[in-house]
UniProtKB/TrEMBL annotation:
<protein>
    <submittedName>
        <fullName>NADH:flavin oxidoreductase</fullName>
    </submittedName>
</protein>
<feature type="domain" description="NADH:flavin oxidoreductase/NADH oxidase N-terminal">
    <location>
        <begin position="12"/>
        <end position="353"/>
    </location>
</feature>
<keyword id="KW-0285">Flavoprotein</keyword>
<dbReference type="InterPro" id="IPR051799">
    <property type="entry name" value="NADH_flavin_oxidoreductase"/>
</dbReference>
<dbReference type="GO" id="GO:0016491">
    <property type="term" value="F:oxidoreductase activity"/>
</dbReference>
<dbReference type="GO" id="GO:0010181">
    <property type="term" value="F:FMN binding"/>
</dbReference>
<keyword id="KW-0560">Oxidoreductase</keyword>
<dbReference type="InterPro" id="IPR001155">
    <property type="entry name" value="OxRdtase_FMN_N"/>
</dbReference>
<dbReference type="InterPro" id="IPR013785">
    <property type="entry name" value="Aldolase_TIM"/>
</dbReference>
<dbReference type="Pfam" id="PF00724">
    <property type="entry name" value="Oxidored_FMN"/>
</dbReference>
Length: 431
């Protein structure tokens, strides 16, 4: 039975529908750690990073993308969890991430067509057709999935979830947002199939529901399953005019219907997000200045679904101080406070707020190379690489370094991953 309390605070525990209780309301949202090598294997660096975060106090730590197929990666440095060859290291990672009473949930994903050509020249997707917009040239034309391939990917999701549980992770998050494969099935722009996986919303959502049910069967009824889902593919915050919706992607009405269906199927938490490569949520690297302009992301949508769902919701993006966090909980527009990038600068942010009563605000820096043309060309990659560099420092038992410039972040990315590092990656809202 879910425990959702009005006037909750960040320090209060939350009991999920499956019966599991998390110790507080801090939800470390997924960021690509970029710590895996070409073998797509987890490493001791993952364990050190997540041990630091676990001791920082958060109730739930969600990993970066763990791909269900090593031939279909979304970003450089992705871990793939398709068999048990890395089980020993996965166990070390899970053990580190669950120290200090934390939950550590593996985010499981398949990129679909959203796999950069420098990594994968043969992507798969619900339908043929390249990515639109300025980033399209970085992605190869995908091959339309057959029914047998779809069923194979569903089995892969279930198998990766089974491995996560066996390794000691305490939950999984199915990634159905940000333009990756499941989101592609949901979108009428990306999914032009005429079989049982295309057309109506119920058909377009069938793949997600099949994945969810296969994962539930693999992990059992008492193991937390979260789903990361777009509020829409073009959130209100990034619309320039009404034509941004035309001819229409996955929208808010459809998202609410999918959420209710997931609730009926027994999902334990829905992680609200939005945007795709073609319509990213954020398009600048202005740091704290942008945060002040934007505030907490997706709050209008969260208010819209308030009272329509009983399943807990995690709202991610824009939380920078305890006052805003507690206000969102008190207003019952979210049950978990999703935070990502601030944890790359303050791994102990939760302890500072809950234990030490810190009332300050996290100010993310403006990230720049100092060269306008480079900033414009590599804006999304620049920001992501900068935060990956901070996570690498934590994984090396070093302190984050907010003063590091953007040029150093780009050089770091190329050194770590070669030219593939300069291909665009899914630009999430500044979390």
């Amino acid at each position: 039975m879910t425990t959702i309390t009005a006037n909750a605070s960040v320090a209060e525990p939350l009991t999920l529908p499956c019966g599991v209780t998390v110790k507080n309301r801090f939800y470390k949202s997924a960021m690509n750690e970029a710590l895996a090598g070409r073998d797509c294997a987890p490493s001791e660096a993952h364990a050190r990073l997540y041990r630091e975060w676990a001791h920082g106090g958060a109730g739930v730590l969600v990993t970066g993308n763990v791909m269900v197929d090593h031939t279909q990666l979304g970003e450089p440095g992705n871990v793939a969890g398709e068999d048990e060859r890395d089980l020993a290291m996965l166990r070390r990672w899970a053990a580190a991430g669950t120290e200090n009473g934390a939950h550590c949930w593996m985010q499981i994903n398949h990129p679909g067509r959203q796999s950069p050509i420098t990594i994968n020249p043969h992507p798969l997707a619900p339908s043929a057709g390249k990515i639109d917009g300025e980033y399209g040239r970085f992605f190869a034309e995908p091959t339309e999935l057959t029914r047998d391939q779809i069923r194979g990917i569903i089995r892969r999701f279930a198998n990766t979830a089974r491995i996560a549980k066996k390794a000691g992770f305490t939950g999984v998050e199915i990634h159905a947002a940000h333009g990756y494969l499941i989101n592609q099935f949901l979108s009428p722009l990306d999914n032009r199939r005429t079989d049982e996986y295309g057309g109506s919303l119920a058909n377009r959502a069938r793949f997600l529901f099949d994945v969810f049910e296969a994962v539930r069967e693999a992990v059992g009824p008492e193991f937390p399953i979260a789903v990361k889902l777009n509020s829409s593919d073009v959130p209100i915050a990034v619309k320039v005019n009404e034509r941004d919706d035309a001819p229409g992607g996955f929208n808010e009405e459809e998202s609410i219907w999918v959420m209710k269906q997931l609730e009926a199927r027994g999902v334990d938490l829905i992680d609200i997000s939005g945007g795709t490569y073609a319509k990213p949520v954020i398009q600048t690297n202005d740091g704290a200045a942008e945060d002040r302009r934007r505030g907490v992301y997706f709050t209008d949508f969260a208010r819209r679904i308030k009272g329509e769902l009983t399943v807990p919701v995690a709202l991610t993006g824009g939380f920078r101080n305890a006052a805003d966090m507690n206000r969102a909980l008190n207003d019952n527009i979210t049950q978990m406070i999703g935070i990502a990038r601030p944890f790359a600068l303050m791994p102990d942010l939760t302890n500072r707020i809950i234990r030490d009563g810190w009332q300050g605000s996290v100010d993310l820096p403006r990230i720049t190379t100092g060269i306008t043309s480079l900033d414009k060309t590599f804006g999304g990659v620049l920001v992501i690489s900068w935060f990956e560099l901070q996570m690498h420092r934590i994984a090396q038992d070093r302190r984050p370094a907010p003063h590091i410039g953007g040029m150093r972040a780009l050089l770091f990315a190329v050194k770590q991953h070669g030219p593939a590092a300069l291909a665009p990656r899914r630009r999430k809202g500044r979390q």
